[in-house]
Design goal:
Length: about 70
């Protein structure tokens, strides 16, 4: 649900908001890669997707992605 998604992002923000750089331990792990791979379509960071690809994103999803990216 959208509510649970917001809770999860809050937890990750709090975890990384400390002096931590990674989700698990003190180096890049599969947890970091998995989170990035699963959340990139929701956040749609700059440079996301294949080079030169153009995505048609419905306005409602574009607004949500902007909200998540601004966190």
């Amino acid at each position: 649900s959208r509510y649970r998604l917001h809770e999860l992002l809050d937890e990750v923000d709090a975890h990384l908001g400390t002096e931590r750089r990674y989700l698990a331990g003190d180096r890049f792990t599969a947890a970091d890669l998995s989170f990035a791979a699963l959340f990139a379509p929701l956040i749609m960071p700059a440079g996301y997707g294949p080079a030169g690809a153009q995505f048609h994103v419905p306005p409602v999803l574009e607004k949500r992605a902007a909200t998540y990216a601004a966190r």
